[in-house]
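Quick check before the chapter quiz. The format below is the same one you will see on the exam, so make sure you can read both the input and the output lines.
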Amino acid sequence: MSETATQESLVVATYGRQVLVATPAGQRVRCLTRGKKSELVVGDRVRWQRAGDGGIVTELVPRRNLLHRQDAWRTKSFAANLDQLLVLLAVDPPCSEAQLARALIAAQEAGIPAFIGLNKTDLPGADAARARLAPYSAMGAEVIELSLKHEPVIARERLMPRLQGKATLVLGPSGMGKSTLINRFVDGAQAQVGEVSQALNAGRHTTTSTTWYWLDDTRTGALIDSPGFQEFGLAHIAPQALASLMPDLAAHAGACRFANCMHRQEPGCAVRAAAGAGLVSANRLRIYEALHEELSHKAW
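Here is the expected output.
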């Protein structure tokens, strides 16, 4: 490849103005981006050209989709061009249902299919966890039960058909079993983290950043691990669009008396009537109300 020729490659790690790209042949090259800061994220496809021992990114290939996270100040993009989202939960510790809802709403808005993995189903609280997830199963979300630690072979048989040939972002709070999942399904996962750190000279930083793992040597399927579940962002979503991104609420919203009903205190609200009749989970309605309030008063 000449100094001026460009090729298309996949961004597998980012650090400041540096990105690590993986070529179709499997080579990893450290590239610089132009400008004071980079807006590139893991999963982006870019065109780049050689420059010395590394390269320079010249162009971002248009994205199929993009997911966001937020901090106290702003919304930031963090993963692109995903085929699906796996939200990994556990029987114990129980996950905040609000966090689960946020993840599914963001995936729906981005047009990314999502499913739920319920880990640690060997524990006594499994039935209670199933009950908590019943509203999600009822609205069409697939729930795959797992025991990654005690039944790894069965977990692999259940999950691998869903993962092969796809780029899957794995989300989940601490303690859900994400590290176990990555290590069970990716040979040499820790070695891959080390290679990324060395390639970017980024030290420990890359171990707490979004990381791309190929499932096998064919490089057709991948797991993308992104820590910081609590930072999952919805600030880019308009409050009036929120109900349409929650399938159980959306199923009744069309019957509201007013077309611009916000499902709060308006008369003739079919969503609230459905909740009163037990057709919409009361907890899901509370989550909607809290998120609507948050998005109506966002400061960024």
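If your answer matched, good. The mean pLDDT is 88.
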